[in-house]
Amino acid sequence: GDSVTQMEGPVTLSEEAFLTINCTYTATGYPSLFWYVQYPGEGLQLLLKATKADDKGSNKGFEATYRKETTSFHLEKGSVQVSDSAVYFCALRQNQGGKLIFGQGTELSVKP
Amino acid sequence: KAGVTQTPRYLIKTRGQQVTLSCSPISGHRSVSWYQQTPGQGLQFLFEYFSETQRNKGNFPGRFSGRQFSNSRSEMNVSTLELGDSALYLCASSDQTVLNTEAFFGQGTRLTVV
User: Fold this and answer.
1) What mean pLDDT is reported for chain B?
2) Is B50 helix (H, G, I), strand (E, B) or coil?
3) Nearest-CA residue of chain B relative to A52?
4) What is the C-alpha to C-alpha distance for residues A109 and A96, in angstroms, rounded to an integer?
5) Cα–Cα dist B29/B26, whole Å
6) I want to staple B33 with a disulfide (CB 3.0 to 4.6 A). Which of B4, B47, B48, B84 is the partner?
7) CB atoms A99 and B45 under 8 Å
């Protein structure tokens, strides 16, 4: 079945460092891909999305490109802030329906 | 527009009891999905309802059930609670009339089974 694999955390970075969180997926066809972020005690918030190959999603300085050839959707940010400390989830959705398949999540901690 | 509202935020139940969680979607959203989040298993899909019909179901035992009302509000029920059911239960709603729509999540209900 479909699945998503993320790099394991926790990831600890200094403020203004470059961030990469790797995400690869296994799926038939052309799923939509998402990055969600979860702050402590909160639900999930959509960070960015891409719905077809070579699409680049971006938001709040974060970017991810849908790479069909490598089945990847890596999350990047050029300069992280303390406020970016959270858990990040990569997810796919196979069709217009509501079912999301999530990776295991990557905890990011940014130190001043 | 109000966001997705889940009630209650916290619950403590005893093994063997049953529990009902509620989710009010964003106004106009007809799709509601439920997820279970645990440290060991991560985020797992429970089921999705659309226009009062269950459209998709995850791999959970029959003790987990749900329903959706005509106003799109949804409830999920867990019967005969087990310690392993302790988790954060998240509800998400989406507007299925919009292509490539995103899912909006509530803050969740933290269920503790003792």
Assistant:
1) 94
2) strand
3) B100
4) 34
5) 6
6) B48
7) yes
